Amino acid sequence: MKNVLRRNINVLLVVFIILFVALIGYLWFVTSTYGERWFVTPYNPRIQNMQTTVNAGDIYDRAGRALLYTKGGEREYISDKGRRTAVSHIVGDGFGLTYGAQTNFAKYLYGFDKNAFSRIEDLVSGNERQGSDIVLTIDAKLSEAALDALGDNRGAIVVMNYETGEILASVSSPNFDPKDMSLFLDGGGESELVNRAFVGLYPPGSIFKLVTAAAMIENDLTDFTANCEGSVVIGGQEIACWDVHGDIDLAGAISHSCNVYFAKAADVVGVREINETAQAFLFNKQLLTGDVIMGTSVYEMTTDETNAAWSAIGQYHDLITPLHACMIAAGIANDGVMMAPKLLLEVVDGETVTYTLKPTTAATPMDDTSLLKQMMLDCVQNGTGSNAAIDGYIIGGKTGTAEIAGDEENAEHAWFIGFVQDEQHPIAIAVIIERAGSGGSNAAPAARKVLAAALDIGY
Amino acid sequence: MILERRGAGALLTFTVLFTLSACGLLAFSGGAFDIGVAAYGLGAALLLILTYGIFSVVFRHIDRLTLVLCFFLVSIGLVLLVRLDMEVALKQLIMLAIGIGLMFATIAVIKAVKDFGKLNYVFMIASFGLLAFAYLFGDAVGGARNWVSIGGVSFQPSEISKVLFVVISAYFFAKKRHKFASVMYALYVGACVILLVLSNDLGAVLLYAATFLIVFFAGTGRTGLTLLGVGVAGAGAVASYYIVPHVKTRVMIWRDPWIYYHNQGYQIVQGLMAIAAGGAFGAGLGLGYPEAIPVNTSDYIYAVICEEFGIIFGIIVILLYLVFIVRGMIIARNATSRFDALLVFGATCMLSLQSFIIIAGVIKLIPLTGITLPFISAGGSSLIACLVLVGIIEGVAVKNGKRDEKDVVDAGGEVI
Ligand SMILES: [Zn+2]
After folding, report:
1. How far is CA A363 from CA A119, A145, A211, A324, A331, in A?
2. Cβ–Cβ contacts within 10 Å for residue B194, how many?
3. Helix, strand or coil, per DSSP, at residue A233
4. Angle CA(B390)–CA(B392)–CA(B396) in degrees, nearest 5?
5. I need a labelling partner for A401 at 20 to 30 A (CA). Which of A336, A356, A386, B324 fits?
6. Which residues 6+ apart lie within 8 Å of B155 measured at CB?
7. Is A135:A119 a contact under the CB 8 Å cutoff?
8. How many Cβ pairs within 8 Å bridge chains A and B?
9. Is A338 helix (H, G, I), strand (E, B) or coil?
């Protein structure tokens, strides 16, 4: 009898050991996976608290221009209002109202990254606590050019290096002036604080055709052709094309953005296959790598044939963030390797560089993107994206004109995503202009301006 | 045995050094030297050394490692309380002294008695009465009605009750009891759980129910029935999710605390941010911002540990609880009677489960239920109950030691 008891005790001891080891494993896993994310919420009172006790570090752009610095114990923004507002979503505000660098990289700016020993040393020696300086991947001048390209419109533009994932510029309009946050602190304002580039979810419209095309390539359906008579009826509902394209193949359908072709293709490829490709391109995936907090893009699988057709051309419930759209163009340009978006180039503690950017891969949706790349080059050379062409450079792209569900009267969102095919200038871009109408005539010219500015600087 | 003593001695030395250096650091951190804080550290260290000395002389066969482990955990609590709130820390030190006195008494009693016999029925009435009293006259703190205040002194009856619960359970599973006894015991367990559910003390519900099932399994070895019990408990938990609004809220917060940040999720989010703020090596004692965490001295003290001492230290704390469990189980296996074995086993399980439930709740592995972290959290009732449970474990350890010594001497040996 006694032995039975002993055996039972042994069994339960093993159970307890498993429980506690699981506890340790979970603690380690969860803090290493989400710790950063938990820390950098604007809610974190530690960040506000540290502002009074630590000499916060400065923030520079990649060219060494100061964007925010501490002078005489005071936090100072740059005096040039145009530049200040162009980078406002990236730099963030000092009140924890936005997810900018001030919140996101608070760990470095306020010296949370220094170990306990060096902090205790500071404490005992009576030194003023000093945070590290950070250098961002963005170029303030390029950011100004991007904001300028948006004009008075609402929207967002993201420019990134497709080989490294470095974000060279990211602007969102309308924006805010971090120097005067009184309106927002009183709970006012509309959506100025929202960084549309990272968290704005828009219907992708025709830029999603790239994903559908990728699904066709992955499933060996590149031979599929269709006849476009200007519209097609699927499941009793009419899906219109913006032109009559006649007999058209995959390359032509991308270049001329034919709705009928892809609406018909949806059934041939199948929603399951499109969904698989969309997931490979990071739809429905929360991206935890990289330096940015971004919204999760949506592709919803549906068995309804009409909705399946709509979703294949980027309508129905499809949603995407401009940053993600840029990553898709970047991934295609970078031979199927999607780099994780990066914002932090360097951290400098006094004279010592304590962190340098290391490019990481976010996803590898395809092994071979040469076909897609060629179609996108065609689109700019001969198709809807011709307004993005720049003399002396090979530009690839895809336009989009996204209808807004339940909104018949207002104009559509204008999209353009693209890249420069050039080893010396590996840049990708995404442009969305809200309610501007067609992507080809509104977003593509803006993209051209920004790409030209980037090339001019030498990126 | 020599090796174990050396290990205990080393850990005690470490505990004393830890307490002294931590209090020294805190005394200096305000700019001017705070003599009160330094004196506190000295006082706490002396109390622990003195206790260790007296206990190991009076009870020669005490399990020293268990005792010192418990001291180390207590000292972590004291240091953090000094850092958070000196007033609470002073109260905790007084409670520690009282708790140590009661632990001494418990060891003496356990050493002397066989199984309390019919007294268990009195325990049952007392234990149930305490819970009923808390339910009827208690004050709600943090959603649970489990505080009772008499003549200005407030305490948690469920803490005292849980010690009795361990003793009673050991008695009833020590051997086959009469039908009447079994029915009485079953009624008692059921009534306790229902009362705790009614008081909204979810942590205690989980603790009592799990301890019961574990002791039941150990005592009877009936796997089928135990699993059935787990099933019933699980079904009860699922049912309570739909019936008790409080439970549903807890689960919803657990699934995504961030969307409830401005109201019910505030506490858990603050805890998570604190843990993240500390990183692997911690912000350093006195250098974090645990002031932002609600109930940072009791339920949420584990988040403070992680913030200021770091996640690696947090893991060490979990490992210390694990070592404590292993020691407890070894003492249980060596016990001279089934009652003693189940007694130690129950006490160990209760303490282990309690630490698991609250740590897992704070790090969001399971839904959060308000319960204290054994030995570390502030709270007189909780600390005293934990020390009495250690007293129970040590009492049996002393009995085991005596028997072993007799065996050795009978065989013509000598005990060093
Ligand atoms: Zn067409």
Report:
1. 38, 30, 14, 12, 8
2. 13
3. strand
4. 115
5. A336
6. B147, B148, B149, B380, B381
7. no
8. 132
9. strand
For chain B, how are helix, strand and coil distributed in percent, rounded to 5? 75, 5, 20
The domain defined by A205-339+363-457 folds into Beta-lactamase (3.40.710)
| CB-closest option in A2, A12, A31 to B276 | A31
Please, are residues A90 and A81 in contact by the beta-carbon 8 Å criterion?
no
pLDDT score, position A46? 78
Q: Is B41 left (phi over 0), alpha (psi -120 to 50) or beta?
A: alpha
Place of tokens 């409080």: B246
**Residues A294-304: pLDDT tens digits?**
889 999 998 89
Give residue limits of the domains in chain A. Answer: 205-339+363-457
CA distances from B70 to A246, B48, B393 (A): 83, 10, 12
| Residue range A171-211, pLDDT digits in tens | 999 999 998 888 888 888 888 999 999 999 999 999 999 99
Per-residue pLDDT 10s for chain B (416 aa) are: 566 677 888 999 999 999 999 998 888 876 778 888 999 999 999 999 999 999 999 998 899 999 999 999 999 999 999 999 899 999 999 999 999 999 999 999 998 888 887 888 889 889 988 888 888 877 766 556 667 766 666 678 888 898 999 999 998 888 777 788 888 888 998 898 888 888 888 888 889 999 999 988 888 888 888 888 888 888 888 888 888 777 777 787 787 776 676 667 778 888 888 888 887 888 788 878 888 888 888 888 999 999 999 899 999 999 999 999 999 999 999 998 899 999 999 999 999 999 999 999 999 898 888 789 999 999 888 999 999 999 999 999 999 988 888 888 787 766 55
Rounded Cα distance, B249 and B260, in Å: 10
Element (H, E) at A60: strand A59-60
Give me the pLDDT at residue B152, please: 60
**pLDDT for B416:** 55
- Check if the beta carbon of residue B71 is closer than 8 Å to that of residue B52: yes
Please report the sign of the dihedral spanned by the C-alpha atoms of residue A453, residue A412, residue A274, residue A215: negative
How close B337 gets to chain A, by Cα (Å)? 8
Nearest to A426 by CA among A207, A138, A164, A149: A164
| 3-class secondary-structure state, position B335 | coil
Q: A-contacting residues of B 276-315, CB under 8 Å?
A: 276-277, 279, 281-284, 286-289, 292, 310-311, 314-315
> Roughly how many angstroms between the first and final C-alpha of chain B, as a whole number?
9
Q: Confirm if A454 and A161 have CB atoms less than 8 A apart.
A: no
Q: How far is CA A216 from CA A210, A311, A377, A409, B282, in A?
A: 10, 15, 19, 34, 51
How would you classify the pairing of strands A133-136 and A59-60? parallel
Under 8 Å CB-to-CB from B22, ≥6 apart: which residues?
A: B41, B79, B82, B285
How many angstroms separate the alpha carbon of residue A393 from the centre of ligand 1?
29
Of B217, B287, B349, the CB nearest to A119: B287
pLDDT of the residue at A1? 44
- What pLDDT score was predicted for residue A343? 95
- CB spacing of B276 vs A38 below 8 angstroms: yes
Is there a contact between B208 and B162 (Cβ–Cβ < 8 Å)?
Answer: yes
Give the tokens for residue B56. Answer: 């190991």
What backbone phi and psi angles, to 5 degrees, belong to A166? -65, 130
Global model pTM greater than 0.90: no
Q: Report the distance separating Cα B188 and Cα B195, nearest Å.
A: 10
Q: Report which of A366, A300, A357, A297 is spatially closest to residue A331, judged by C-alpha positions.
A: A366
Find the Cα–Cα–Cα–Cα dihedral A171, A176, A179, A185, rounded to 10°. Answer: -140
For ligand 1, the distance from its centroid to the CA atom of residue A254, given in whole angstroms, is 10
